[in-house]
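Researcher: Let's walk through a ligand-bound prediction step by step. First, I give you the protein sequence. Second, the SMILES string for NAP. Third, you return the three-dimensional complex as structure tokens. Ready?
Model: Ready.
Researcher: Here are steps one and two:
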Amino acid sequence: MSGRIVVVGATGAVGAALARRCAARGVGLVLVARDPVRLAALAADLPGSLAVPADATDPAALRAAIAAAGPAIAGLAYCAGSIALKPLKRLTEADFLDAFRLNALGAAMAVQAAQEALVSAKGSVVLFSTIAARAGFPNHAAIAAAKGAVEGLTVALAAELAPVRVNCIAPSLMRSAMSAPLVGNPQMAEAIAKQHPLARLGEGEDAAALADFLLSDAAGWITGQVMAVDGGRSTVRTRG
Ligand SMILES: NC(=O)c1ccc[n+]([C@@H]2O[C@H](COP(=O)([O-])OP(=O)(O)OC[C@H]3O[C@@H](n4cnc5c(N)ncnc54)[C@H](OP(=O)(O)O)[C@@H]3O)[C@@H](O)[C@H]2O)c1
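Model: Step three, the predicted complex:
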């Protein structure tokens, strides 16, 4: 594998776990997120990595950050995202547009910015959806619509950019900053954990392990897939 791996949303639960895994394989990294202090702290832990603060909803800033990776990009993981849950009645046009801008448009602009460098390295792209894009959950209209767009983007770009590989991970609820309003309450966390056949919430490491594999040469014949990392929640029913 030649070239760096770019992780957008690098300081998050998934992004940081993925960055640590890639660094352990000896891959150089470009780490992107908004908060420069947290980004610099992560980069200081990962030799050979570059911290490039940028807002993924600003295409020019995102493009400049990704350019820091140079002419060959072995992998791009777009791990930035949001979960703003509201009933349809309270959702505004801005809520829908914000969810789309960060989750779907940001992912598209990131791949576009990296396209030439990905092609030159025959690289791999990993995007993030949610199980709520295919299974219906109340109050998820804005995020499900935006993440559904990410799944469409995944198959379209896998077709258009081959041999660059493009795959998508669809997690269930994982402990992280964005899920804190839901899992910060221990009773709610326990109730949601019980909805998973594997009887626990996810951790960033659960999705990072699959992302690391999909970015690696070991996944060289896998493209255009949306894979759940969800403790069985989207497909498995238990006896209880
Ligand atoms: N956690 C869950 O339960 C869950 C469930 C289903 C799907 N997902 C998806 O899985 C992916 C990873 O989630 P996570 O749990 O690791 O999230 P997280 O821990 O909340 O981290 C989000 C990361 O994205 C960065 N970020 C947020 N807004 C950004 C922006 N506008 N520009 C640049 N960076 C931005 C954050 O850093 P800054 O704030 O410093 O920018 C942080 O590095 C996301 O796509 C998410 O939608 C998560």
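Researcher: And what stands out?
Model: The longest helix spans residues 93-121. The chain has a mean pLDDT of 97.
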